[in-house]
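User: Hi! I'm working on a homework problem where we have to compare a predicted structure to a textbook description. Could you give me the structure for the chain below?
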Amino acid sequence: MHLNTPQEKPPVRLSRLPPYLSRWLGYRSSPPENQPKYTICAWSFIGAFCGLAVLQAIFGHARYFIDLDVPPIIASFGATAVLAYAAIEAPLAQPRALVVGHMIGALAGVGITKLFELLPLKYYQSLEWLVGSLSVAVAIVLMVITETTHPPAGATALIAAVDPKVRDLGWYYLLIILLSSAIVLVTALLFNNFQRRYPVFWFKPAVPAKAQASEALGGDGEKESVARPPPFHCNRKLSSSEDLESL
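Assistant: Happy to help. Predicted structure tokens:
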């Protein structure tokens, strides 16, 4: 008689790395403790200040970027800082959404702008006001399709279409966005893993959490919250096997 025995779940890839390396990539052998609000505020402040300062130091003071007339910082990364350094457990703040989302926004903004610029000048000038809105709309659709929704990336697409200084960069804008995203990600891995944990996952699709309608708006209230999983909470404890299952 053959008995089916439960198979052991394969170990998470990051667990094979030494702890002094895997820690800075978000891996924990056990769920991290919830941190008090003052700790979260302190590390959010330090991370945002240092991350954005590094961006402006590189693009605002490096002779190479100055000669290319690259802006000291792309404004959409101010919004990214809120997610990457403060709301670090939000699905929209995870590396896949951060990097790919911004790249999709930049690609949509530059690509659509280039297509409109192929029109005769008089037609382009009469339709220029549509470029920004179309760029953002296309970027949103592409992020939803690829499951890499990152709200600040909408601004990345818009800036590429409406800011003359950025528009002059052309396709080079994609490299600026890629480098900026990488800098934010690296600094987030550093400052978010001293007393907290980031990322919650690397490659799992970043899908926005569904908000529950309150009873005042016709929702089911407590009954709905019992039937559905609870909404994402910043201090929610997750096991290492749950949040890194895709690695």
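For your comparison, note the following. Confidence is low (pLDDT under 50) at residues 5-9. The CA atoms of residues 70 and 169 lie 8 Å apart. Good luck with the assignment!
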